[in-house]
Amino acid sequence: MQVLKDTDFLSLWELGRPLHPLDRSLLAIHAAFPEMRAENLADWPIGRRNRALVELRTSCFGSALQAWTSCPQCGEKVELALDGRALLEQTMQPNRDLDRKPVQTVAVNGETFRLPTSRDLAGLVNSSGNKGTDEEDSSAAAISLLNSCLIGGEVSLPQNWSEEQLEQIGEKLAEADPLADILLGFECPSCSATCSEALDLTAFLWTEIEAQVRRLLHEIHILASAYGWSESEILSLSDFRRRLYLEMVQA
User: What is the pTM of this model?
Assistant: First the structure.
């Protein structure tokens, strides 16, 4: 994995600003793993994509992930914490056997499904997200997603699939791809309710990238105003030297 430099953060942020979050995640992964073909990243299982995002985040900002959410019961603000390295090690446990290939499909009730990918999620966005409505029929979305992942099936899945069947398939997919959906459990310190919150890795990482870029641009502005240096000259300085110049200007 390539360690991102300040110039990489600036370029990544500028290219990703107008993009959908799905595309931002793939753009960030390609910046860190340039040896991967960009067009193939969309076909990675979601868990593999999320693993790459955790690796990228850990290398850039450390392994401690901290976020805030609100208790759905009482609205109390709650801090969530996660160790990125521990998460990666935990999900590697079932695959310690190097000769064993990662699970790519699951079979449920005689049907075989491949693991969902970013391309599948983009298909959901394109089919329902651009209608200008706020309809969020989770059952219909699940059926549409499974339809795109069904191997050798009919054009469309039966619309009368029960919630129990959908849940059974979902559990099998989650077992095969545990990083596809990262849930952080917590107990509200105010009302003691036990809750869980899904971690949106793309949004989390992008918020940190944007904060990093704004800090860099602020430093560039200060030093350029004080010394007349160009952006490239300022970014070529080591972090240590840049910090010393900033201290002298601000003093």
Answer: 0.86
